[in-house]
Amino acid sequence: MRSDLDLVTVISPRPQKGFIETPCVKELTDRALRYIKAGYPVHLSGPTGCGKTTLAMHIAYNLGRPVVLINGDEEFSTSSLVGGEFGYRRRKVVDRFVSRVYKSDESMTKMWVDDRLTTACKYGFTLIYNEFTRSRPEANNALLSVLEEGMLELPSAARSGNYIKVHPDFSTIFTSNPEEYAGVFRSQDALLDRMITINMGYYDEETEIAITRAKTELPYEDAKKIVRLVRRLRESDICELTPTVRSCIMIVRTIRSVEDDSFRQACIDVLSPRIGRGKTGDLDPIAVIDDMLVEEGIVCR
Length: 301
Hints:
The chain has 301 residues and is of the alpha/beta class. It contains 11 helices and 9 strands. It has 2 domains: 4-79 and 114-199, Rossmann fold (3-Layer(aba) Sandwich), CATH 3.40.50.300; 205-295. Helix 8 packs across helix 9. The longest helix has 16 residues, at 220-235. The model has no long low-confidence stretch (mean pLDDT 84).
């Protein structure tokens, strides 16, 4: 008989290649672990590109339990988390005890298949629910009793019964982006009230430099210049789309050093689409980037 684990992708926790744990990252990790070990789910809330999912995976690695990952989706229903009836099981018994008599008994029953939340609750896995506010609030109702009473309510069709007791090693890490508005739903107050929210901003300069260098082989000083350029643009009020450390990595991976002839063009291609046209509509993104390159002392006019 197939195990329900055969139908759910379970991730083995392991160190993430190139993960950087600066004092800033360690402080966030320690806080989250302290809350989880006290029995509370943790909610990492922050803007795009601030490292929520990466940090969630790092926290899960420190917990040492297998991981089940869910990515929030508007199409989710409760069955997407808990499970449902999928397919049929056919059973046929043939009786030929008397050679001249043929007897058969045939039946078909619907098959119940556990989904990721049920599997994580049953076996004590770490559940990472990434961007959970992208799912409709009613789809997340099953989590309320899990987080409060330690019980998961199942439909009557489930072979496990109407309830299962949550494994004592089960833990939950949620992530969300409070700045998104497209495809995002307001979470229930009842769900937010059951978790501890850690508000994440962008990492400090040294952490972003370390992350950029970990993904590339650029010297420290060159990485520092690129990070400072991106942070300067981020802190201005002219961006329609905030540049993140991902922008730094994109630039760095396309050049060998800031002395490359292609460096300026790489900065323009990566960063200019993030700049708006200004209140009067005549702001030139290329001129803005050129000015910042000069002001940061990266290129000379």
